[in-house]
Amino acid sequence: MTQAPGLYNSFAPLGNVVAMVELVMRLQNRTPGLPGMATYYGKSGLGKTTAAIFAGNKFQAHHVELKSRWTPRHLCEQLMAELGIDAGKRVTVSRMIDMIADQLGKTRRPLMIDEADYLFRHDMVEIARDIYEGSGAPVILIGEEHLPKKLEAYERVHGRMLDWVGAQPGSLDDVGNLAPIYAKGIEVGADLQEEILRASRNSIRRISSNLAKVKEFAATNGLRRVGLSEWGNTEFVQASAPSGRSYAV
């Protein structure tokens, strides 16, 4: 399970964090006979991993983040390590799947598989289903916006989803909730909060970066409160890449 740094110890009740917590609760408290998998999806920057880490710590869930080049063996080895299973180096992938499922079946702790879009390489998505079937523990796939559509090609996985939850764009409430964390000790004016939301295009990641920039700006200028008038023409961290620069020859 991923350990929580400062953000997760000082909980910001972001909408997407609350949605993830509620999703885990529905899976854990589902009526017997109902499927126990779920998908949490959305565009990059909406705070899906933040939500997963917080919920993971709250429910003592196992959280594994896939990498682009992982093979089925890499996936199983990482899951084994996350679950604290030591089976030596000569264990087959099939045997590792059985051992992972057996351990999860004993603890019934949720399993969160982040960056789940990479599961479609080498058909690793079937490994996630095998682990769920063998354990009965909640399994949540976390990925990008089109993850649910991709899963349609895998009916045996698609049909085991209890729910599909889409991460929502950041809101003005989220800006206010993140301000005490990333701009700690600084009063961020309501007008500046609105401009941060606009400039960040509702991305939780960019909202956090821009609030941190406000704190840096305040420290540089000896301010305790920063509104639009104080901020002036200072640039935000933008959602679009900077345009190319030209130089006089």
Class from helix and strand fractions:
alpha/beta
Q: Number of helical segments? A: 12
Nearest-integer average pLDDT: 91
Order of helices and strands: HHEHEHHEHEHHEHEHHEH
Q: Would you report the number of β strands? A: 7
Q: Widest sheet: strand order?
A: 2-3-4-1-5
Fraction in beta strands: 5-15%
Shape call: elongated
Overall radius of gyration: 21 Å
Low-confidence stretches: 1-9
Biggest sheet architecture: 5 strands, parallel
Straight-line distance between termini? 55 Å
DSSP helix fraction: 40-55%
How would you characterize the overall build of this protein?
The protein has helices spanning 6-9, 15-28, 48-59, 72-83, 93-107, 125-135, 147-151, 155-158, 172-182, 190-200, 204-221, 228-231; strands spanning 37-41, 62-65, 111-114, 139-143, 161-166, 187-188, 225-226. Strand 3, helix 6 and strand 4 (139-143) form a beta-alpha-beta unit. With 249 residues, it is α/β, with parallel strands linked by helices. The protein contains 12 helices and 7 strands.
Keywords:
five-stranded parallel β-sheet, 249 residues, alpha/beta, 12 helices, two-stranded parallel ribbon, disordered N terminus
Furnish the topology, listing elements before pairings:
Layout: H1 6-9, H2 15-28, E1 37-41, H3 48-59, E2 62-65, H4 72-83, H5 93-107, E3 111-114, H6 125-135, E4 139-143, H7 147-151, H8 155-158, E5 161-166, H9 172-182, E6 187-188, H10 190-200, H11 204-221, E7 225-226, H12 228-231
Parallel strand pairs: 1-4, 1-5, 2-3, 3-4, 6-7
Summarize the structure.
The chain is 49% helix and 11% strand. It contains twelve helices and seven strands. Strand 3 (111-114), helix 6 (125-135) and strand 4 (139-143) form a beta-alpha-beta unit.
